[in-house]
# Entry
Amino acid sequence: MAKQLHKRFSPEEVKTLFQKYLYEGIELIYILETLRVKKSRFFKLLKEYVRDPNNFSLQYKRKSATRRISADVERNIIKELKEEKRLIEDKDISTTSYNYSYVKDRIYEDYKQKVSLPTIINRAKKEGFYKPKKRKKRAHDREVHSNYIGELIQHDSSHHKFSPYADKKWYLITSLDDYSRLLLYAKLMERETSWHHIVALQDVFLVRGFPFSYYVDSRSIFRFVQGRDSLWRKHHLLTDDVETQWGKVLHDCKVELKYALSPQAKDYTSHCTSFIRFASSLINFLLLPCCFSFSNLVMSSFPGHS
# Structure
């Protein structure tokens, strides 16, 4: 985009070109090419120059302030940001950051008002509805990395209140391809059992095929972990001496099982946040009382990347 005329030429330079056009017979086409303006713009400036040559200026004053939103839009932005803050402060809901894109969509759908995302973010910072991103300290480098699709599937479950309309917390079981970040499986459960995780394996295997390995934490559904011996008790079974029902299914399907070496290494729940927030936002957008079956219907209809 070309710079404005007053940034490319000084008033004296433009005056010189006007004089050459008026008194020296320079053709208009050459002056227009030099100034890079249209005829209408040229003659408007020429008229101002002829009227008052001594006070001629290329600067102009705007008739009205630009980039200003109406009071109604401002009020609606603050209203939606307050709702976002309420969700963040609710400890039962798995929302820890502001979703400004959702606020933008909500304002357009509910109030038919268009507002840019930077404007919403600026208002959020001004009014205190902003949480700066914290840099996570790298505790270690013992993380598993993949090089191709299907090499590693991250599988886990989380227990949160995924919608403000829900009357209790639900379990969200997810399977995520580590390389492509494709969410292969996501389903809400009222209670978590080994069978629910086995069904998740069945869904992924029948739809996507058999992966090379699964990556999980050390919870009892996935792994038998024995504590240390004490003076009062002697253990006869050690860690991994007993195969869990879920692990046996993987073993029979020839899928390798890998365990996270620490809680920090297994922290991939944040990768699924965008999908969870999208599903929750859609439930809020429909303004319906959130029921368990409806939430699963929404999530199953929108598979996507995290």
The chain has three domains: 5-51, 71-127, 153-300. The mean pLDDT is 79. Residues 5-51 form one domain.
